[in-house]
Amino acid sequence: MHAEVIVIGAGIVGAACAHALAQIGRRVLVLDARIGGATGAGMGHLVVMDDNPAELALSSHSTAQWRALAPRMIEDCAYSACGTLWIAANEEEMAEAERKQQRLRTHGIESRLLDGAALARAEPALRKGLAGALEVPGDGILYAPNAARWLLAQAGDSVRVEHAKVDEIEGDGTLRLVDGSRRNAPQIVLANGIEATTLCPELPIRPKKGHLLITDRYPGTVHHQLVELGYVTSAHHSDGDSVAFNVQPRPTGQLLIGSSRQFDTTDPAVEAPMLARMLQRTLEYLPGLADLTAVRSWTGMRAATPDGLPLLGKHPWREKLWLAVGHEGLGVTTAPGSAHLLAALMNGANPEFDAAPYAPRGLLEPA
């Protein structure tokens, strides 16, 4: 196949880019290094985030696209329209829930406030005395590795996947693989998450390590994705270690538990102190969790930019190269919106929403 676009990376962002480019008629070659990444390690949440207007625009467009895709997904994508409950521990956080609802309303996103009694009825396993919650019913979860494979399979002959690792992006945009062979196309998309800096060290991306733990099967224990409203202040610090309460009910009946954040380490080892800190935070909200059996814990690396927004657009000086990197912990959520925005830009068309906030920025100047 003569490729018109080569996508480096077959995770959820790379797969979504290939899918979106195929939809506009491009023939795409995806290079999959098969070294794993955030797609396989993350929680697979589809959640509207509103830390800033650009994040809200991208995540709301993306979750809408996931909902449109969901009826066609195969079962092993494990899509669940479980919604999110943003938990307010006290009246101060309840006031933040009301402000959050107002922000979501401006984008037409449905949500509803639950007082403490309604929250207790919705999620009886939560500790007593919580102030309430904001329910966002349009959020969901899925199993990202299978969703990525499903996206790649939807394009038929328009997308071909080659198992190969890129060793260098040469000056004219040619890709040299580790076996010494070369691949070329009129346009190249870099969408390989935390590995992007090995090919483009000028990118302003830092690793952000996270721990996860999954329990045995306890169907019906939790019904929604549960996130503390203090998540933004607890887990989105620009520096320093942090934890926050975040639990998902997987379709298997298991509970997937997060989250933690550590900057500037790529050591994949599970760290007992950080895992214990994360679980202690979880027990503050779900005390019954102490009686459940954990079956596995692991870590993953998010690719974080200084402002938390991905880099989407043409690389400012590298030939042929387009960027779809730096999604931090929202790669699964924002993959389809990022892909459609980038595909429109690559096609010379206007995206459905303003692309300016995500334009590549903060790159180190070439030596």
Number of strands: 19
Shape: globular
Residue fraction in strands: 25-35%
Distance between the terminal alpha carbons, to the nearest Å? 36 Å
Strand order of the largest sheet: 5-6-4-14-15-16-13-17
Helix content: 25-40%
Helix-strand pattern:
EHEHEHEHEHEEHEEEEEHEEHEEHEEEH
Radius of gyration (Å):
20 Å
- Low-confidence stretches at least 5 residues in length (pLDDT < 50)? none
Mean pLDDT: 95
**Major beta sheet, specifics?**
8 strands, mixed
| Annotation field: number of helices | 10
Report the structural category: alpha/beta
What is the structure about, briefly put?
With 367 residues, the chain is α/β, with parallel strands linked by helices.
Describe this structure in words.
The relative contact order is 0.21. The protein has helices at residues 12-23, 38-41, 53-69, 91-106, 116-122, 144-153, 196-199, 231-235, 272-285, 331-346, and strands at 5-8, 28-32, 45-46, 84-88, 112-115, 132-136, 140-141, 159-163, 166-169, 175-177, 182-183, 187-190, 206-217, 225-228, 242-249, 254-263, 294-304, 311-314, 321-325. The protein has an eight-stranded mixed β-sheet, with helices on both faces. Strands 8-2-1-12-19-18 form a six-stranded mixed β-sheet, with helices on one face. Strand 10 and strand 11 form a beta hairpin. Helix content is 29%, strand content 27%. The protein is globular.
Supply database-style keywords:
single chain, 367 residues, alpha/beta, eight-stranded mixed sheet, 10 helices, 19 strands, 29% helix, 27% strand, globular
Please give the structural blueprint.
Blueprint: E1 5-8, H1 12-23, E2 28-32, H2 38-41, E3 45-46, H3 53-69, E4 84-88, H4 91-106, E5 112-115, H5 116-122, E6 132-136, E7 140-141, H6 144-153, E8 159-163, E9 166-169, E10 175-177, E11 182-183, E12 187-190, H7 196-199, E13 206-217, E14 225-228, H8 231-235, E15 242-249, E16 254-263, H9 272-285, E17 294-304, E18 311-314, E19 321-325, H10 331-346
Parallel strand pairs: 1-2, 1-12, 2-8, 4-14, 12-19
Antiparallel strand pairs: 3-7, 4-6, 5-6, 9-10, 10-11, 13-16, 13-17, 14-15, 15-16, 18-19
